[in-house]
Design goal:
GO terms for molecular function: metallodipeptidase activity. This protein is α/β, with parallel strands linked by helices and 316 residues long. The chain contains ten helices and nine strands. Strands 1, 2, 3, 4, 5, 6, 7, 8 and 9 form a nine-stranded parallel sheet that branches.
């Protein structure tokens, strides 16, 4: 069954390896490097039809270097993922999903945290032109747009952050609420035409700042938003670094109970996590999750989770 995955951090790993800061001095090859949980071979084995690739800048990178880091990751997306792998097709607009041929895998650029452009909206517009189709305002820390889930202050969106959401609306770009503070989340709900939680789980099942509580979940569904479950064990089971596929499916069950059967998807966070769901350690294993879901849900519902819900709720 085809899969759309709305979050991975392969670009960061490729960048760090290119800079000699990850796995020694040797760059990683996207086609087959086993140091990547999201490589071409794994995507093909897992029957992934589209993979979203996040631009993520580590908070420790000095402010005056963040834009350069972002451009490096965009360059790697083009040179190492698109140009060297004919099966990978750059998704530049939402209609491109409909033109993917058998054997082709869509590649989508996203931005995880506004740190890359600071308060320079010209840079943000450049990112739109380069193909960014989903923007998360924060990672866990605070920036000039909003507070993240790990910022004790817990502030909401700044005036700049609200302007970014409006620009996302104007450009048919998702505003991603994963990693936002609670107040930031509610600010986005007031403004965003296209909200998504690209990689978040259920707080009632796992009390973690990165997960969404019941009221947030209901608000997302009421605003035609998507919630894509994440495969990181600490977001599945509280205070644990292990999880089973059954544990992950409990989050899907809960979201369905809150009315989201047609608004659920997957956002693995592969290459951004350090522990894994048993038998779901990379994108090659995706069909194991599908097989377990088919024991509990109809084929039509599972197709929704896997890819169709996303296609039905993409910006138009």
């Amino acid at each position: 069954m085809k899969i759309i995955d709305t979050h991975c951090d392969a670009l960061l790993k490729l960048q760090l390896a290119n800079r000699g800061q990850y796995y020694g001095e040797h760059p990683l090859t996207f086609a087959d490097s086993t140091k990547l949980e999201t490589n071409l071979g794994y995507l093909q084995q897992g029957e992934v039809m589209a993979q979203f690739f996040a631009i993520f800048i580590d908070p420790e990178v000095p402010s005056d270097e963040k834009w350069q880091h972002a451009l490096e990751q965009v360059d790697l997306f083009y040179t190492e993922i698109i140009d060297k792998n004919p099966a990978m097709k750059h998704i530049k607009n939402w209609h491109d999903f409909d033109t993917l041929r058998e054997g082709e895998i869509g590649a989508v650029l996203t931005l995880e945290g506004a740190d890359a452009f600071g308060n320079d909206l010209i840079k943000l517009r450049h990112l739109y032109r380069l193909g960014v189709m989903s923007v998360g305002l924060t990672w866990n820390n605070a920036n000039l747009c909003a507070d993240g889930a790990g910022e004790p202050r817990g502030g909401g969106l700044t005036l700049l952050g609200k302007e970014v959401v409006q620009l996302n609306n104007d450009h048919l770009v998702f505003t991603d609420v994963s990693h936002l503070s609670v107040k930031g989340f509610w600010d986005v709900m007031e403004l965003a035409k296209y909200p998504i939680a690209s990689h978040s789980n259920v707080k009632a099942l796992c009390d973690h700042p990165r997960n969404l509580d019941d009221e947030q979940i209901k608000a997302m569904f009421n605003h035609n938003g998507l919630i894509h479950v994440v495969f990181n064990p600490p977001f599945i089971n509280k205070d644990r670094r292990d999880a089973t596929i059954d544990d992950l499916i409990k989050h899907v069950d809960y979201l369905c109970e809150l009315g989201g059967v047609n608004q659920i998807g997957f956002g693995s966070d592969f290459d951004g996590i350090s522990c894994f769901v048993e038998n779901l350690e990379n994108t090659a294993k995706y069909q194991q999750l599908i097989n377990e879901l088919l024991k509990r849900y109809s084929e039509d519902q599972v197709r929704g989770f896997a890819y169709r819900n996303f296609l039905d709720h993409r910006p138009q």
